[in-house]
Design a protein that fits this description.
This protein is an all-alpha fold. It contains 6 helices and no strands. The protein is elongated and about 55 Å long.
């Protein structure tokens, strides 16, 4: 197995943490664009268009990365709830269907819906 395949999940986690850190640092602690670019150079890609686009997104949409992380944690929690309650009857396609059929709803309502669905 290539080395990149073994560590790709770790790289994605580091990148998610870096993006979250920079989103908060730029918008709450007033980190400059230059400081953010130096951090990307040190920990991620070096100078690249991806880093440029990420920093621009953080500056134009404060909290976007943080909100994605909260959403991801909620979806993981909902899946875990459904997996634990249904056991071997759990179906990932069915979970995806149930989540997507709710459309855009507050995450708290999604968790309540999954709990109610799992209790049936």
């Amino acid at each position: 197995m290539p080395l990149i395949d073994r560590f790709s999940n770790s790289c994605l986690q580091i990148l998610a943490a870096l993006r979250t850190f920079l989103d908060v640092s730029i918008n709450y602690y007033n980190m400059s664009r230059m400081e953010a670019e130096l951090i990307y150079n040190k920990y991620a890609w070096g100078s690249s268009t991806v880093a440029f686009k990420d920093i621009t997104r953080f500056q134009s949409s404060p909290g976007v990365v943080t909100s994605y992380m909260i959403g991801q944690m909620t979806f993981v929690k909902a899946r875990k709830l459904m997996e634990e309650s249904l056991g071997p009857r759990f179906s990932l396609p069915e979970f995806h269907y149930q989540v997507l059929r709710q459309g855009e709803i507050p995450l708290e309502y999604l968790l309540k819906y999954i709990r109610d669905l799992s209790d049936r």
